[in-house]
Amino acid sequence: MRKKRTPIDASARRGGAGARSGNSRKMRKAAPARKPRRPDGVARIPASGIAGRRRSEATVRHIHREPKQRAVEGTEELQAANLALKAERERFLGLLEELPAIVCLLAPDYTYRFVNRRFLELFGDPQQHPCFQTKSGRNEPCPHCPVSEVFKERVPIEWQWTSPAGRIYQLYHCPFMEADGSLSALELGIDITERTEMAERLQKSEENYRMLVESMSDGLGVMDENQVLTYVNDRICEMLEYPRDEIIGRPAADFVDESHRAVLEEQKTLRSQGQDRSYEAVWVGKDGRKVPTIVSPKAIFGSAGRFTGSFGIVTDITERKRAEEALRESEKQLRSLSAQLLRAQESQRASVSRELHDELGQGLNTLKLRLALICRKLRKDQAPLKEDCEETLGYIDGIIEEVRRLSRDLSPRALEDLGLVAALRRLIHEFAKRTRTKVSSQIDDINGFLSKDAEIFLYRIVQEALTNIGKHAGVARVSIRIERLDDSVHCVIEDNGKGFDLEPDAAADSTEKGMGIAIMKERIRMLGGSLDLWSQPGGGTRISFLVPAGSPEVP
Fold it and tell me: How confident is the model at residue 344 (pLDDT cuts 50, 70, 90)?
């Protein structure tokens, strides 16, 4: 009868098998060794097997105990996390409580789960009333209420709301998950009434400014730092006959006449240095028409002080240019007329001078000779009558000398016979003798240096100056200096008379002060020269003028 084998620990079986020796492999395979059995029928277990079993049991006990320990530890961690979450929530709500904005939590039924201090100040305690009743005094939800979209779509929304008091709020709503897993709508409201009003005022101001800019009679343009046009008003478009979209984004040089483009570059450099100077520029319209303008620029600098561009007022001066051209033409005609009048005056003076010299002078000489003959025929007893005749002859001599002087003044024959220098010296000598004034003169040799007309005009200017001095100055001393320079003649006439105030004189009626100074200025202008007049009350007068050597013949 075959006996049932008792399972033995593998280590014990290996130990028993290893205890045998000297048997062949075949015998070990055929007859494995058996452990001796205990009297109670239980197999013996070696000491090494007992230790392994104890370790196994300890492992099993640890495995059974570990889930419980982990559960305890997990519970503690969860409690700590809940406490931390609660603390964070309290801090968060405390922060919301102190915000100057409206903060509240809305439940799906539109009641409030939380309101902060600012909400209470504005709307009071809601006391479980829904938002539409608390804020707007309504008995039913507002139509198209944005809050419902937060609960339905669970997406944040932003909108504006005007309170019954007229205040404007920017409202932000976003989904908010409560600690218990329920959904709320977090509302943040900022009062933007003042900002909105300011924006409306700013918009109104911008509209007014734009209307003002667009209705300007002058053009206005804005350029960036590269002189690319970024804005032009309607007047610029009218000037150039371009639509606005064909101007914006293009360099200003594209619309400026080629002869003025260098001026733009120069002005750009000046503006980048903070120098704003008005300048003339000729623009070219779409049809090629040239538009003369005056540009008054103003540089624009950024917050960092970097040049970012400029704007400019563009004034169309086409009409002014036409008026200036007409004025120049009128002045040219007037000067031509003045020259003709002066030449006619000289011609008339020469004619009168000849009349005085030839007719009146000869007549006076004839009268003088006849009266002298009568005087010689008187008897000795007619001595009183003879004395009267001799006195009359002296008077006639004075008249003859005055007529000669008038004739010389009207047409200085010495100027033709002796030259300019001799004629001037004779003029000065006669003035000093007639007015009993001390005159010092220094005259360089300028004979033939000036044209014939220039010599006559120079003589007349000195003559007019001496005439004015004799009439108005009340002087005791006069200084005349005429210098020959390389390409001009410089003349200075000074006196120590009573002088006059130049400002009132400039505005005074010409009949009051005489035409002397005006005629001198016109003569010098016609010669292409310049005159400088200085005077002050009690300080005398100085006249200084320059006559170019190449002065043309007076037209």
Answer: confident
Give yes or no for residue 92 having a pLDDT over 80: no
pLDDT in tens, 157-180: 999 999 888 899 999 999 988 878
Confirm if 175 and 108 have CB atoms less than 8 A apart. no
E strand intervals along 374-475: 438-443
Asked whether 257 and 280 are in contact (CB, 8 A), the reply is: no
Q: How confident is the model at residue 26 (pLDDT cuts 50, 70, 90)?
A: very low
Cβ atoms of 63 and 48 closer than 8 Å = no
Pairwise CA distance, residues 232 & 214, whole Å:
9
Of the pLDDT bands very low, low, confident and very high (cuts 50, 70, 90), residue 67 is: low
What are 186's strand-pairing partners? 105, 174
- Comparing CA positions, the residue from 522, 519, 521, 444 lying closest to residue 488 is 444
Question: Hey, what CATH class is 225-312 in?
Answer: alpha beta
Phi, psi torsion values for 299, nearest 5 degrees: -75, 150
Decide if 311 contacts 223 (C-beta within 8 A): yes
Matching fold, domains 99-196 and 414-555: no
DSSP conformation class of 9: -
> Which helix (H) or strand (E) element contains residue 221?
strand 219-224
Please determine, for residue 62, whether its predicted confidence score (pLDDT) is greater than 80.
Answer: no
Its CATH architecture, for the domain 414-555, is 2-Layer Sandwich (3.30)
DSSP per residue, 32-98: ---PPBPTTSPBP--HHHHHHHHHHHHHHHHHHHHHHHHHHHHHHHHHHHHHHHHHHHHHHHHHHHH
Give the span between the Cα atoms of 171 and 146, in whole angstroms: 10
526 contact partners, CB below 8 Å, separation of at least 6 = 335, 338, 339, 342, 457, 554
Assigned fold of 99-196: Beta-Lactamase (3.30.450)
pLDDT band at residue 27 under the 50/70/90 scheme: very low
Asked if pLDDT for residue 2 goes beyond 60, the answer is no
Indicate the domain borders of the chain. Answer: 1-45, 99-196, 225-312, 317-411, 414-555
Nearest in space to 493 (alpha carbons), one of 513, 473, 523, 512: 473
Can you tell me the mean pLDDT for 230-234?
92
Closest CA to 161 of 209, 104, 217: 104
pTM: 0.45
Cα separation, 498 vs 487, in Å, equals 34
Residue 169: φ, ψ to 5°: -120, 140
Question: What confidence tier does 515 reach under pLDDT thresholds 50, 70, 90?
Answer: low
Q: What is the number of other CB atoms lying within 10 angstroms of the CB of residue 29?
A: 8
Helix (H) or strand (E) holding 421: helix 420-435
